[in-house]
C-alpha cells in the first residue's frame, strides 16, 4: 500500500494539472449559465479539484438533475451533509437551520464527474447533458 501511495505521489503534479484543465473547461461553460453557480478560485487559492461541485437553484432541481444524469449513466455525488444532520448528532437534538449557509450549500450542490482520466468526449457529453436538462 505504501509503495502504491509513493508511486502516486510522484505523479501528483501531472494529476493536478489534468484536473485543473478539466475544471477550466467546466468553468468556461458554466460561468455563462445563470442556472448554475460555480465555486470560483480566488487569487489566494490553488484548487487541486478533488471534486467539481456546482450549485443549482434549489434541492428539488438538484434531485431532478441528479436523476436525469443518472439515466444518462453520468454518476454524480452530493457533498457534504452538515455534520449536525448526521444521525449521531440528531440524538443530541441539533436542529435544522443551525448553519444556514452549510445547509444551503448541501441542498443545492451536486458534484459532477472530475477525475484524471476523464476524456474530452465524456466531458463534452456531461456538459451537453447538463445544458439539455437546464433548457
Automatic annotation (TrEMBL):
A GO term for molecular function: pyridoxal phosphate binding
Q: Which GO terms describe its biological process?
A: polysaccharide biosynthetic process
What Pfam families does this protein's entry cite? DegT_DnrJ_EryC1
Which PANTHER family does the record cross-reference, listed alphabetically? DTDP-4-AMINO-4,6-DIDEOXYGALACTOSE TRANSAMINASE, TRANSAMINASE
By what name is this protein known?
Answer: DegT/DnrJ/EryC1/StrS aminotransferase family protein
Q: Which organism is it from?
A: marine sediment metagenome
